[in-house]
Amino acid sequence: AGPDGGRGGVQPRSTLRLAFQKLVSVVLPCYLKTLEEERDRLLVMTVLEALNSILKHCKAEALREPGRLDAISKAIRDVLLKKTTCQDSENEELDSDEEQQAEYDAMLIEYAGDGIPLLAAAVGGQVFAPYFAGFLPLLLAKTKASCTIAEKSFAIGIVAETVQAMEGASVQFVPRLLPTLMSGARDTDDEVRSNSVFGIGVLVEHGKESMHTHYPSLLNILSSIISREQNRRVLDNVCGAVSRMILTHVSGVPIEQVFPVLIRSLPLKEDLEENVTVFNCISFMYKNQPSQVIQHLPQLLAVISQVIGTDQIQEESRRSLVTMLKDILHGFPQEFQSALRPLPQEMASKLRSLITS
User: Is residue 307 within 8 Å of residue 353, measured between CB atoms?
Assistant: First the structure.
């Protein structure tokens, strides 16, 4: 059978794709109609959740039909603007629980907002940039000092995730986003700080040269946070942001001051997804400034021994670390053995078995 053919009852891929498109062409208009006209908030939330699931798993395949991206974006925008039928206060039951309705309203907006980075990931940053420009005023309006903590955390989180999804196309939004993220990084709320610091990191990563002039002020903010921060997730996000700064523009970072602080802040405790970035940074540093890594090898081996072989790091990171450790053992055998000695026997044995396998 050819590439689209099949035997033993397996459907050709083109047939499955066609069937999927037919299904989506029926389902999505129903979803969008429900979002606009349905009075029951819970049902609308369920539809938003289902829509997000389709976007997450099917990505561009769900948006092939002309006008579909526009239609979904409009539906999300209408929810954010509270223009849907279920958000119309005139449709509320007289005896309804006001507190519960307010909670549902907030959840509706969160579910709708979750669709923004999913759309960006589905169609790519260049295509999505004009749509993000339309959403941005609505999101930034929720980051003002007068807004609730939940609103600020939600909006900054969506902004950060969308920047990550849009990648290089985010650069045009740096002037509008950076002041908000820098302000959020100083917020009194842990989650707002955490989301803001993550946002700074991904904006650094994808904003590239447009962010270089901001490095001194960003390092000042991150240094201030790390010196007094009690919340582990915020600290983990600082580690991720600093790692992205090093990976993106190492010459803009005073490595001799920053790298030791990064190593001392490891291992990550809560936001383990940032381990990918952090260990990429350490591998990068070994390739580009090996003396820095060797200088902090005892602390580094202690960290690696705690996370390697666990579900805290992905397989790609594990392989990269093993390669680096083998290289260090080959190039700096004395320093490696010396750094290994203070480790508990179990951890030292684990590292030895990894690099000799």
Answer: no
